[in-house]
Amino acid sequence: MMGKFYKILLDIIRSIDLLTEIIWKIKIKKKILPITYDLTSLVIKKALEEYNNRGIKFNSYLDMGCGQIAILGLFQKKMCPDTKTTSADIYEKFISNAKQNALANKTNINFVLSDLFSNITNKYDLISFNPPYVPIAYKKKSFDYEKISYAGEDGTDAISKFLKNAKNYMTNNGLIFLGVNLFYVSLNNLQNIVNNFEYKVVETIKKKPHNCIVLILKQ
After folding, report:
1. Where are the domains positioned within the chain?
2. Model pTM?
3. How many CA atoms lie within 13 A of 90 on its CB side?
4. Percentage of residues in the chain with pLDDT exceeding 70?
5. I need a labelling partner for 73 at 20 to 30 A (CA). Which of 51, 65, 114, 164 fits?
6. Nearest by Cα to 48 from 27, 78, 26
7. Where are the alpha helices (H) located in the chain, listed in sequence order?
């Protein structure tokens, strides 16, 4: 019961534009879905902040699966305006909506309609991905943008497809910020996938009290 109440309260908080604008330091012009970020997004945000505070700058950044706002791309550009940022998503409506928000924030972001790396051509110093990781068994009803949530029987389909090709789009010293909610995908399964595709874990970033983490990966 408490878990359900917490989820409802969290959804309400995440749907309030003013709070989102304060947390992310951006302006929301338009949105398609009421909720514009999740807990995993917050951990990726923390990773971006920590690396910036350490003086680690990224000349180029790919915000993979940017969603309806491209909230991570906008946040990185607000924090580091010189970062050449590309935000990509599989849904055309998300890309169109994100473009409007980028204009409202006076932010120069390159937007690409792409199924993972299908339309990506450049290499990047940083690629972040907050993938769909909910196992299909959790699906209760259909909705228009299911690919933002569900990823096969164990929630790892999108992660595997992403890691299989990501190396081709990383610069020599490039990094990946891979966010996952360990409530849905076990750490053991996640580590096995990372090892299978021969990535090295640089560090793991967490944000209490929830189970979302970001793995910092390199080739």
Report:
1. 2-218
2. 0.94
3. 15
4. 97
5. 164
6. 78
7. 2-14, 17-24, 39-53, 71-79, 92-104, 157-166, 187-196
